[in-house]
From TrEMBL:
This is FCRL3 isoform 2. One of its GO terms (cellular component) is plasma membrane. The chain crosses the membrane at residues 572-594. Residues 603-652, 696-734 are annotated as: Disordered. Residues 628-637, 696-715 have a biased composition (Basic and acidic residues). Keywords: Cell membrane, Disulfide bond, Glycoprotein, Immunoglobulin domain, Membrane, Receptor, Repeat, Signal, Transmembrane, Transmembrane helix.
Length: 734
């Protein structure tokens, strides 16, 4: 009698005993795809197809739902599962709610080898026609203009199906295409596993081989048949309804590769188990043991490892081999007359971590040691610090996530976070990967950040990463700066706008009565300014706006009142201006004649050079007197401009030089300011006043006849100002 030994290497068994059968999840209506807005009922039942007793637990995308009824209605897509008190978790069923106009539906459930019905449905199915069905982009035969078709003997091959159809849209036919459908084909039965009655058979002892599988609880009536093989030879009588094969005695020539097949009696579905090597030995070695140095199997990357395989007993030449989980080939093999052998692994790497065992064989089949786990601890690599923020440019108030991660390193890893070398906090990654630290940003959080990682084998520091926190602008303050307390025509007005908070650059806009005056950009503190040479039209409300790309802020309105006559009069035509200029020239000539006559009457008379005989001390102009001509672009003040913030009011306007009449009148009457120090000039001033009045009678304003009807009202106002300004000025001077 020969003895046989069964050894199943790297083929773990599937424990079926003690496991509750899976629950069954059904759909009503039985289609896995529905239109968005429709409802689908889910029903959870036990293996006997009866409704669940007690509470039913429902899951969507592996998350527990609150409902506990055995039947629920859903409107959201997802992968649904259920379980009951007497059953385990059901297989996942994906239910889709499509917003499209055309969908392709498949009946559920569908198992391997089933014939499945596909249905092409439109939202308005009455207006849907010429339906065509496709598989993997190719039209299925005999599938034209059918409401539904049957696909025979489907399998789990991930084929994709879709359909097309025409829909009526008024007088047009529009082609609609459904989304691809992957039919959810469930396993009819599990892949078989070959099991042996003993892991250490002896020559001559019996052996029982079992081909284990499990039918779906929804198809318990399907009939299966089994067949077992050694290498390419069929064992027993071939196909049998029994999954077991009894071998009376195992012999050395029975060593080989064993496997089994399971198929339905209709031959529609067939599955094969993995191969298991069975070896028979005559006098086996026993108590194979694996030992690892350093003791305990705890190594640091770069160290050397020794694997020591030994047996308690065995005869003859023993072949030792070393194996690592997940590798098909052995790590090494030695044959020697010894009960112990060593394998040296130099400079271990991270990939060397895992479970190891060794095997010893002295005749036929190896005997395995128990598994021993080797841990290779990896020092952390330089971590990488990244920022995660809700926008590309961080703003005050944003929640910033600092994420630090070392791509290599054994867990647990402790991460520390720094801002300008000041510790912010730490976070641990127990299972490896990275860790994060959150900050609610303020302006003070700008600067350099870094992190370090430490798993006890030496800390590593990241490179510094700079962060700039952008601050939105605050509400700006508009300040008006003028050379005097009351603004007059011709003054140079500075509009200054400034936000006390906000990241640069800041763009400032200036407005007069909601009309844009201009803009100016500030790349540092202090705000920005805009200058105006004032006319009476510049009276009104002013405001400004500040914007640095994070939202504009508008200032409060500041009111300005400019008094005096406008330098830009639209009512005067070129002919009127020319006549008035001639009047001024005649007036100046008359003044010169009077001055000459008086000089001849006085003893001093005129000097030889034609200049006045008055001494400088008699008629010297005060140093504080203003010039007779004001350039609006070149203000004459020498003191700092006075700021005005709350609606200043101005009066006593000095006319500028753009109007020749008022400029000249002001220039002539301005000499009245010095007449008190010069009696001769005072007398001349009075005589000029009389001459001016006479001259005005002979040169009336002739501009009104040339004005357009649109400007006539303005020109009459100009004539009134022309008549009144000299009298007002003379009256104020006297």
């Amino acid at each position: 009698m020969h003895l046989w030994l069964l050894l199943l290497i790297l083929t773990p068994g599937r424990e079926q005993s003690g496991v509750a059968p899976k629950a069954v999840l059904l759909l009503d209506p039985p289609w896995s795809t529905a239109f968005k807005g429709e409802k689908v009922a889910l029903i959870c039942s036990s293996i006997s197809h009866s409704l669940a007793q007690g509470d039913t637990y429902w899951y969507r995308d592996e998350k527990l739902l609150k409902v506990k009824h055995d039947k629920i209605q859903i409107t959201k897509p997802g992968n649904y599962q259920c379980k009951t008190r007497g059953s385990s978790l059901s297989d996942a069923v994906h239910v889709e709610f499509s917003p499209d106009w055309l969908i392709l539906q498949a009946l559920h459930p569908v198992f391997e080898g089933d014939n499945v019905i596909l249905r092409c449905q439109g939202k308005d199915n009455k207006n849907t026609h010429q339906k065509v069905y496709y598989k993997d982009g190719k039209q299925l035969p005999n599938s034209y203009n059918l409401d539904k078709i049957t696909v025979n003997s489907v399998s789990r091959d991930n084929s994709k199906y879709h359909c097309t159809a025409y829909r009526k849209f008024y007088i047009l036919d529009i082609v609609e295409t459904s989304k691809p459908l992957n039919i959810q084909v469930q396993e009819l039965f599990l892949h078989p596993v070959l099991r042996a009655s003993s892991s250490t058979p002896i020559e001559g002892s019996p052996m029982t081989l079992t081909c284990e599988t499990q039918l779906s609880p929804q198809r318990p009536d399907v009939q299966l048949q089994f067949s077992l093989f050694r290498d390419s030879q069929t064992l027993g009588l071939g196909w049998s309804r029994s999954p077991r094969l009894q071998i009376p005695a195992m012999w050395t020539e029975d060593s080989g590769s064993y496997w089994c097949e399971v198929e339905t009696v209709t031959h529609s579905i067939k599955k094969r188990s993995l191969r298991s090597q069975i070896r028979v030995q005559r006098v086996p070695v026993s108590n194979v043991n694996l030992e690892i140095r350093p003791t305990g199997g705890q190594l640091i990357e770069g160290e050397n490892m020794v694997l020591i395989c030994s047996v308690a007993q065995g005869s003859g030449t023993v072949t030792f081999s070393w194996h690592k989980e997940g590798r098909v080939r052995s790590l090494g093999r030695k044959t020697q007359r010894s009960l112990l052998a060593e394998l040296h692994v130099l400079t271990v790497k991270e990939s060397d971590a895992g479970r190891y065992y060794c095997a010893a064989d002295n005749v036929h089949s190896p005997i395995l040691s128990t598994w021993i786990r080797v841990t290779v601890r990896i020092p952390v690599s330089h971590p990488v610090l990244t920022f995660r923020a809700p926008r590309a440019h961080t703003v005050v108030g944003d929640l910033l996530e600092l994420h630090c991660e070392s791509l290599r390193g054994s867990p647990p890893i402790l991460y520390r976070f720094y801002h300008e070398d000041v510790t912010l906090g730490n976070s641990s990654a127990p299972s490896g990967g990275g860790a994060s630290f959150n900050l609610s940003l303020t302006a003070e959080h700008s600067g350099n950040y870094s992190c370090d990682a430490d798993n006890g084998l030496g800390a590593q520091h990241s490179h510094g990463v700079s962060l700039r926190v952008t601050v939105p602008v605050s509400r700006p303050v508009l300040t008006l700066r003028a050379p005097r307390a009351q603004a007059v025509v011709g003054d140079l007005l500075e509009l200054h706008c400034e936000s006390l908070r906000g990241s640069f650059p800041i763009l400032y806009w200036f407005y007069h009565e909601d009309d844009t005056l201009g803009n100016s950009s500030a790349h540092s503190g202090g705000g920005a300014s805009f200058n105006l040479s004032l006319t009476t039209e510049h009276s009104g409300n002013y405001s400004c706006e500040a914007d640095n790309g994070l939202g504009a802020q508008h200032s409060k309105v500041v009111t300005l009142n400019v008094t005096g006559t406008s330098r830009n009069r639209t009512g005067l035509t070129a002919a009127g201006i020319t006549g008035l200029v001639l009047s001024i020239l005649v007036l100046a000539a008359a003044a010169a004649l009077l001055h000459y006559a008086r000089a001849r009457r006085k003893p001093g008379g005129l000097s030889a050079t034609g200049t006045s005989s008055h001494s400088p001390s008699e008629c010297q102009e005060p140093s504080s007197s203003r010039p007779s001509r004001i350039d609006p672009q070149e203000p004459t003040h020498s003191k700092p401009l006075a700021p005005m913030e709350l609606e200043p009011m101005y009066s006593n306007v000095n006319p500028g030089d753009s109007n020749p009449i008022y400029s000249q009148i002001w220039s002539i009457w301005h000499t009245k300011e010095n007449s008190a120090n010069c009696p001769m000039m005072h007398q001349e001033h009075e005589e000029l006043t009389v001459l001016y009045s006479e001259l005005k009678k002979t040169h009336p304003d002739d501009s009104a006849g040339e004005a357009t009807s649109r400007d006539r009202a303005h020109e009459e106002d100009d004539e009134e100002n022309y008549e009144n300004v000299p009298r007002v000025l003379l009256a104020s001077d006297h």
